[in-house]
Each structure stands twice: as C-alpha cells, then as structure tokens.
Design brief:
The structure is a homodimer. Chain A is built from 13 helices and 18 strands. Chain A has two domains: 272 residues, Zn peptidases (Aminopeptidase, 3-Layer(aba) Sandwich); 110 residues, Alpha-Beta Plaits, CATH 3.30.70.360. By secondary structure, chain A is of the alpha+beta class. Strand 11 of chain A pairs antiparallel with strand 11 of chain B, so a sheet runs across the interface.
C-alpha cells in the first residue's frame, strides 16, 4: 500500500472531532468509533463495538493460535478540546500538510500513533497471510477524560483480553530519529473547587472591604499550595514519593540537555521548581500541583467593578511512585477546606485519577522493545520516563496482570493538547515499521 | 401627569441597552441619548447633543435669569453590562414590575434617579411656568467606564456650565423611607494585568513541574496583595489615608446595624476585613484592593490538563481621602512587577481612576439638601459616606469649582451592577417631589 493511501485513510480518521470531554461532540466520537470498526472489517477481521456508559470501546483480534504469545495493542480515538481555536493556523479537524508535518487535533495524540500499528498489522497480513503473534487491538474513546469505563470493561472481559504483554504508542521520543523506550509515567489526580461568597455579584464600591471576595479567595487557595521555593505545601504530600535512583539520574543526565530543550520547547524565560533537580527530573520524576483553569468575575472587554458571587479553579496533581491518587486527593481537599476563610464556602469536586506506572526496561519484553526500536531507527534506544499520565497502563497491570511496553512516536514539538498539534509523516511511516519489527521480536523473546 | 404616564416614559428610557463598556452596544447608547434629547425638546427646551471620542453628552438648560442661583443636575444614561445574563429573572432590558419594584438594568443606576429630576422640573414648569433657580441638566453616557470624556468637556464648556452647586442622585438611602445625604465617596483606580509564560498552552504532564504556570502566578500575585488579616500589603498604600473623625464614627454607629445589614444584604457567612472597623467603616471609610475578574486556562465542562500560556486578572482599588489614584496605580504596578517570578512575564495595563470626594454637610447647600430631604420623606436625614465612586464629582469641584449635593434614592437591595437590578416606584415618585423641594430650598439658601 502506498504512503499516499496510508495518508488518505489516516486523514479520514483525523477528520472526526472526537472530543470526549464535551458532550456536544458525542455523535462525532461515536462516528469515529464506527469508522475504526469499518477499517478492521476491511482487514477481514470481526471487530466488536462495546457500548459503555460513556463512549464505545473497540476490540479487534486476528487469528488466535495457542502456541504463540498474545500482544494487546492499546490506543484511544478520542482527542482533547481545541480551544483556544483562534490560535490554530489551520482548521483543527482538517488535516493540513506542511513539509513533513501533518497538523490536526489527534494527529499525534493518539490517532496517528495507534493507526500506524493497525497499518503495520495490515501490511504483515497482506505480505505473509499471518502474524508472528496473536494480536488484540483495544481502542477506547475516553482516554482524555481519564478512561472511567475501561477498568470495568477489562474486569468484565478479563478472559478474552488475556495476553502476555501490552504495547502502547502514546508517549514521546527524545528527538527526531532517537528511539525511545518509556519505562515510567507519572500518575494524575484531578479536582475542581468552587468558592462562593455573596448571594449575588456585588458592587465592589458599595460592599468592598467588608466581605471576602471569592475570586481573591480562590487565588489565595491556589497560591497556598506552593511555598516560595516551588515546593508543594500540602501536608503529607511528599510522604510516599520514591526518590529517583542513581542510574536513572545518570542516564537522564546523558540525554540531550533537558534544561535547554525545556526552555526552547516552551519558550519560558526561566525554569521553575524546587532546587536540586534538572528539568527532566522535574518533568519525569517529581510530583506537581498545577492549576489548569481558573475563573471568576468579569473577564470581558473593559472593566466591571464587581465582587463576584463565586469563582473556581481546576487543579491537577502529577504523581510519581508510590503516591496514592485517592490519598492525594483527600489531602488536597483537606488543605483547601482548611484554608478557606469563614467569609466564603468551598465545594470540592474530586475528578479522575490514576497512579504512576513503572516497569523494568531490562525484562524480556523490555529487551524485545529495545531491539525493535533499534531496527526501526538504526540507533541505540534511550530509556526514559515521561511526565504525562496513562492511568490505563496501571489497570493493565492490576487487572490483566501484564506489563506495558511504551514505544512513543511523539516529538517534543508536536503540541499535543495545544493548538496546532502535529505528527510527522516520517514517524507515521516509522510507526508502521516499528509495529512489524516489534511483533517479530516479541514472538522470539516471550 | 399621572404616575402611569411617568412610568410609560421611564420604561421607554430603560429599554435602551446602553452598555457603555461594550463597543457592540454603541448604537444603543447613541439611540438612548437621542431619546433624552427628544424628551427635553418635548419640555420646550433646546437641548444639545455633544459628540465625544466615546459616547455623547447631553446638556439641557431652562431659562437663565441673572438674579438667581444656578443648579447643575448630573446623571448618566449608560449602564453596566448584564452578565451573568442567565441569572436575571426577567429580560435585563424589559422593565418588569413586581409589587413596588421595577426590574431592569439601569432602573436605579442611574436612569431612574436622574429621570425623576427631569420629571420634577417638568412638573414645576407645567404648574408655575418657571423654576425657582436656573437649571442645567448634564447627562453623560460614560459613567460606567470612568467618564473619560467628561472632564475635558467640562474644561471646554466651563463658562456655559458655570453654576453654584451640583446635585446628583446616584447614591443610596440607608433604608426605605430614611432620607440620606451622602457627603463623601470613595475613589477608584483600576488596572488589568496579564501574565505570560510558555509560548503555547502546554501539556501539564509533559512539562508540569519544570515551568511556572501563569494561572498559578496570577493567583499568587492576587494573593500577595493582602496579609492574612485582610490588610493590604502594597508598600506605602495606606500612607495618605485620612483617619475617620470621631463624629463620623459616632454618627455611623447610630445608624441601623451596618454589620447585620451587610450580612443580610450580601448573604455572606461572615464579614471580612482588618480588625477594629465596623462593616460600614470598611465600606465607606477604608480603602480596598479587589479582584473583579480572574481568568486563565480551561474553564469549560470537564477537565483539560494544560499549563495555560497566559492568565489575567482585573483589579480595582477603592480609595479614601487623601489617596492619590495615580500614585496608588503606580504602587500597585510596582508591587505586581516586583512579585512576578522570573519564569513569567507580566504586562500591567492601567485603567480609569478618580480620587475620593468629601464635602461639608453643614454648609448652606448641605443644609438646603437636608431640608428638602426632610420635606420629601418627613424624617430626619442621615449623614453618611458611600463606598462607590463617582469620579466626576471631584471634577465638578476641580473644574467648575463647586460642591455636589448627593441625594441618593438607591435602596440597599436594588442590586446595581448585578442581575435583577431594581428601583421602587415609591422612590421614583419621591425623586420627583425631592427635585421640586430641592430647587425651592436652594433658591432660598444660596
């Protein structure tokens, strides 16, 4: 199959605005699932579309033979919202090629990365009529909202999803052409809180000075989470944090300069965080408390001198081994409630969460993954962790009892979760080759 | 003229969505000015509509006689925005009567209060064919955006606006039926600041912990303006504050319980502010630093784990004698710039401002005002200050050289600047009688 026909199919897949967090896009998410279903049918498989209380899960499997290992390949067809939409240089859901890059929401995260696996399997089947291992594709539509329905689904289908290893491409490469195995991920725990004061918006001249301002209180609560050195002040927050091991810090120190690349990729005027850690250590091996959204009062043109009746903030905590997300959310909730002044009321709503993940990169499947990466990119793979969260990886461990190989194809400048997300044609095609090499290596090693 | 015909005319005036802060409503503001012009023409006057770089100013004067004092009556036909519009129980620009109350944006602030003066003058003219004093109406369309074009207008028309006293109804009454003379107002100084960090929204997993989060920085900057006791921490902020005088504190202590009424009117669970002051003293006699709007990151449904590229806050400071608004804005800007961490850049945009105002309530025009209030409401007037700002009052003093009598008709529950603003029919009609009594009293006293 030609590169052009690969791209044509990929672009059809990308055009669905499958934003899982926004109920207005429910139909688009569903249509996107149907498109995947049709794709697997074209490959001669009998895929299944499983409804959930949220968005459907697609399961597709090739021929199963008892004498060979089973590899479960996971991906997600849902994508992040696109706002601020005015900052996109091309329509967010119209794939646009510029040079080697395909610009589209979901291009890298995660449609491109798992669709390359599908095309790899399709090519192997076309050339050999069979695969070297049993393959199950498991592709969900709720990763961007924390995969609430996938763990119950894994529980219910534990037998039919039984496998020896999971493979996921939803992480990043150190740089173009540098193959990268990710052996750890941070966890995440989200919450939102609303502070309410007066029963209505007040004239800040008439009442200002005598009543607490909910926007001020939200700001104070957000500010209260860090000390001036950037260390998180929530009581017991760091108690379960495993320190980084010596070999990890040394390996990461040997990577291309993380401090400089963090500055270059983000454009910030200076780095941030508690002293004693590099940027990569902050991003991969240390927990955070972050405000992802804050809002209250008048945000339009001009001024409006009100004391708003309420204000809110959305927080997320990035977690490392061995922090427990449920415990962290409880600590955070206690911190916020304790620090809310008596002039306001606070309501804390706990959101999705998942623990950090870590696997041994020197295990047999870890070695197989390194070999496949070496073959695909003709270069020594680097061993890293990543800062993002894929809570489902922990569920594969807990429910299916298997480790996950994380073979990321995202490049540092691909702008996932931001305007102008892109995926390179180079990595899209490499992903197809990587799938083919990986299945061969896994057939031999496990 | 009947009450019904008064209301019919008033409702026509109210229906213009004359929101001065929002450029989308420019035509409505202009049409509202034209309506006023037509009203004065119907009274047999030759009013003038003066264009400005913003919204037009209406000037209307009756017959001028050299042997009697001249009273300038000021009002503003522009109104505040209506958001959150979903919290209105009736359409914001469709006057809706419930019991004694007329619900509409601008009903109290300020269309109702100055339109009563117009009707008072119209009635006196109809009954007597003349007025006891010379009257000039000066009605502008930019009070809610800080009256930027009125001071230059006063400078340019200083001679034709020459007068002995100004009268303004744009303040409040202690309670229904309690006549109130306001002898002081707080000033105001506004600014907006934006904090920018990364060049784009970042994935909070990928980069979180290594870069400063602009929403977090905005929260910290807002929080940095107060100490835990509610005292403002900006250096030199209190240096020019005149302490309250003993007689003022005693008079205010004799008013209906300000602490209890502040709690009841606002619905807050507890009062706020530095110790040692009553709620009324906080509201009328002490300065504030308030956040009127704050925003950054994802504020929609669900969660989006980003580090936003920028976040912002709108601040306003309520000022008391003798604080200088320009100096306060400079102190605030210096505070914000000094406290912004090196991982972000801050941009501070200074907005409108005006100093606090104070007059002597025991002067001849102050006494005339008290007499008119006594006649209209058959009760002893109370002497108060108010917390809101009418910067133009200071301009009348500085440019026209005259004091201003503040004869407010707003009630504590009229919800100016908030959803469901209202004005009572009782006070609308009292305003008409008050104008007639005031002009008679002023004719005798000055």
């Amino acid at each position: 199959m030609s590169q052009q026909s690969h791209l044509n199919e990929f672009f059809e897949f990308l055009r669905f605005p499958s934003i899982s967090t926004d109920s207005q896009h429910k139909d688009a998410v569903d249509s996107c699932a149907d498109w995947l279903l049709a794709k697997f049918r074209k490959m001669g498989w009998q895929p299944e579309k499983h409804p959930t209380p949220g968005h459907p899960i697609i399961v597709a499997r090739g021929e199963t033979k008892a004498d060979r290992p089973t590899v479960l390949i996971y991906g997600h067809y849902d994508v992040q919202p696109v706002d601020p939409v005015e900052e996109w240089d091309s329509p967010p859901f119209e794939p646009t090629i510029k040079g080697d890059k395909i610009f589209c929401r979901g291009a890298t995260d995660n449609k491109g990365q798992h669709f390359a696996h599908i095309l790899g399997v399709e090519e192997t089947l076309r050339e050999h009529g069979d695969l070297p291992v049993n393959v199950i594709f498991l592709i969900e539509g709720e990763e961007e909202v924390g995969s609430p329905n996938l763990p119950p689904f894994l529980e219910q289908h534990r037998e039919e999803l039984s496998c020896d290893i999971c493979a996921v491409s939803d992480t990043g490469m150190i740089g173009p052409g540098i193959p990268t195995l990710t052996y750890g991920l941070r966890g995440v725990a989200c919450l939102e809180f609303t502070v309410r004061g007066p029963k209505m918006d007040l004239h800040s001249g008439v009442y200002g000075g005598a009543v607490a301002n909910p926007a001020q209180v939200v700001a104070e609560l957000v500010a209260s989470m860090h000390d001036p050195d950037g260390r998180i002040t929530i009581t017991e927050f760091y108690d379960q944090v495993l320190p980084l091991e010596k070999w990890e810090r040394e390996m990461w120190a040997g990577l291309p300069d993380g401090d400089a690349s963090t500055l270059a990729e983000t454009g910030v005027p200076a780095l941030f965080g508690e002293a004693g850690y590099t940027a990569l250590e902050h991003r991969w091996g240390r927990p955070t408390a972050e405000v992802n959204g804050i809002g209250g009062g008048y945000q339009g043109e001009g001024s409006k001198t009100v004391i708003p009746r309420e204000a809110m903030a959305k927080l997320s905590f990035r977690l490392v081994p061995d922090q427990d997300p449920t415990a962290i959310l409880q600590l955070a909730q206690r911190h916020l409630e304790k620090h809310c002044p008596e002039g306001c009321r606070i309501e804390v709503e706990l959101g999705h969460s998942g623990p950090a993940y870590i696997m041994d990169p020197h295990s047999p499947p870890g070695k197989a993954a390194q070999n496949a990466l070496q073959k695909t990119f003709s270069s020594e793979p680097r061993l890293i962790r990543e800062g993002g969260s894929i809570p489902i990886i922990q569920s594969f461990k807990d429910i299916l009892g298997v480790d996950t190989i994380l073979l990321g194809l995202a490049l540092p400048d691909c702008q996932i979760h931001a305007p102008n997300e892109s995926f390179t044609i180079t990595n899209f095609e490499a992903g197809i080759r990587l799938n083919r090499a990986l299945l061969e290596e896994l057939a031999e090693s496990i």
